[in-house]
Amino acid sequence: MNVIYLHGFQSSANSIKGQLLRDFCRGFPDTEVHLPDLNAPPQQVMDQMSRLIETLDDVALVGSSLGGFYATQLVAKYHVPAVLINPAVRPWQLFRDLFSETALPYVVTDSWTLNDAQLTEMQHLAVCHIAHAEQLLVLLQQGDETLDYLHAQQFYSAEQAGCAMVMTEIGGNHGMDNFAEKIPMLLQFLADAVKNKRA
Predict the structure, then answer these.
(1) How far is CA 59 from the centre of its chain?
(2) 30, 182, 184, 199 - which has most CB atoms within 10 Å?
């Protein structure tokens, strides 16, 4: 199984959760973790992830925050299983509220500056409803200080979503500090989903 970890906004390929996932999977020779850098305009990220998915077999995704948004779009496109960690549902609105017009363009890294046109691009990428949502496991925490967990809970639990599972915990935070405890569960979910898809 090839697990692609999609990090969140203002994170990187060296994200803590991504490293925890890779370190855990070192003990499983049949599982390889890929940690791409997603600090780029939205369409570029989608193109990059599409190329990666198309070169690999038995792909599964783990996406955190903005990475969860991207993972949702990729599930719709490629029908691959995914685990979403406190995913952003409407990131373009979040960033507009956060930065307002006075803070855009916003320098994220030396190589990427977020602007209003990219937020519109992000909005156009978003699927209205979730195709193949039975391949999604969504992990939410009510203590998320960045995103309102109710937005994701409502979106991924909608009747038309048919989501495999939405798990909402009391407390916690946006980074999901107890992520390491959840790795065995999410890997089992992904492995089962990949196996079922292959069958």
Answers:
(1) 14
(2) 182
SS (H, E, C) 35-49: CCCCCCCHHHHHHHH
CA atoms within 13 A on the CB side of 180: 7
- Identity of the amino acid at 140: L
The pLDDT of residue 198 is 77
Q: Cβ(177)–Cβ(144) under 8 Å?
A: no
Dig out the tokens for 34 from the structure.
């890929």
Give the pLDDT score at 164: 66
Domains and CATH numbers, the chain: 2-198 (3.40.50.1820)
Alpha-carbon gap, residue 123 to 119, rounded angstroms = 6
Q: How much is the pTM?
A: 0.95
Query: Taking the chain, what is the end-to-end CA distance rounded to the nearest angstrom?
Result: 14
